[in-house]
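Possible regression after last week's pipeline update?

I re-ran a chain I had predicted before the update to compare outputs. Posting the input and the new output here so someone can diff against the archived version. Not blocking, just want to make sure nothing changed silently.
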Amino acid sequence: FAGLFLLIVLGAAGLRLADLGLRPMHHDEANQALKFGALLEKGEYRYDKADHHGPSLYYLSLPFAHASGANTLAALSEKTLRLVPAFFGIGTILFLLLFIPLIGKEAVLWSALGLAVSPVMVYFSRFYIQETLLLFFLVGFIVALWRYKRRPSWAWAVAAGFFAGMMYADRKSVV
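New output (post-update):
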């Protein structure tokens, strides 16, 4: 099981990480990059409930930017920014391990394979947009809630609250 799961995760990583900087940014990605640039350069973030998602993508991009040595928007590359959703897309697959007691190893392997090669999952995990993070937080919330229901503990309750809060922070307000 471990070997097959690892192969699936490595395959998913290969699909999500290959040539991330090859194509120009989509207009929505560029818009997100500009919002992140203001946070990176000036430490400013202002939520616009009429037109944008919340701050999770931008704040979670900071470690990636700092690790790349970029301190300005101009110093960032498409690859650096797209690593963020790619990382969370791979993380969503890893969350499936926590479902083994519920659905079993075989179902987890098939689910991981489906997420790893799904054209939609691969496509959106390679775009600097919030949706991949939202899915990651949703799966984290579901697993934490299920684990809490199965064996209540403060750790699973806190995890469920954290992931619910991150989903809320990631959402786009409908005005």
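Follow-up from reviewer: compared with the archived run. The chain has a mean pLDDT of 92. Marking as no regression found.
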